[in-house]
């Protein structure tokens, strides 16, 4: 469920950029094959969540022990998401109203002041490459 929501968040960001006419080339980092990988990952996560407890539906196998653990996260996620939306009275921001610029000038001004970490030994170089 969490990876699905991450994919949906990225797709909303991507479509917000497109709606405002901002090229992904202007971003400091852009991952390859997007948004296709986000759509694929979203479909994959939904399929995994749906078929996670498929063995509970085999004849003679259905019980709370085989059904509840694989599927309990779906209603919990939905209850938390929609509960927050109802209690806080929030709404999905339309693409036209997305604020993609707040705070960008401050971050850009600070970017030059961040120290560039130079790896000192072999393990630090590996960690620098991984992270």
Q: How would you portray this structure in words?
A:
The chain is mainly α. It has one domain (2-100). Helices cover 57% and strands 0% of the residues. It is built from 6 helices and no strands. Helix 1 packs antiparallel against helix 2. The longest helix is centred in the N-terminal third of the chain and has 18 residues, at 2-19. The radius of gyration is 21 Å and the shape is extended.
Summarize this structure as a short list of keywords or feature phrases.
57% helix, mainly alpha, 131 residues, extended, 0% strand
Q: In brief, what are we looking at here?
A:
With 131 residues, the protein is mainly α.
Oligomerization category of the chains in this entry: single chain
- Mind telling me the C-alpha Rg? 21 Å
Helicity, in percent? 55-70%
Order of helices and strands: HHHHHH
Mean of all residue-level pLDDT scores: 91
**What is the β-strand count?**
0
N- to C-terminal separation? 25 Å
Uncertain segments are: none
Backbone shape: extended
Tally of helical runs: 6
In terms of structural class, how would the helical and strand content be classed? mainly alpha
Please outline the major beta sheet. Answer: none
């Amino acid at each position: 469920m969490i990876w699905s929501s991450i994919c949906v968040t990225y797709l909303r960001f991507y479509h917000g950029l497109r709606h405002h006419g901002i090229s992904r080339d202007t971003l400091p980092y852009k991952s390859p094959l997007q948004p296709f990988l986000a759509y694929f990952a979203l479909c994959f996560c939904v399929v995994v969540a749906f078929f996670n407890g498929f063995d509970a539906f085999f004849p003679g196998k259905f019980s709370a022990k085989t059904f509840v653990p694989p599927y309990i996260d779906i209603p919990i996620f939905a209850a938390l998401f929609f509960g927050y939306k109802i209690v806080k009275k929030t709404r999905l921001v339309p693409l036209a109203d997305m604020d993609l610029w707040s705070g960008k000038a401050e971050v850009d001004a600070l970017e030059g002041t961040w120290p560039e970490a130079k790896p000192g030994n072999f393990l630090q170089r590996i960690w620098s490459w991984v992270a």
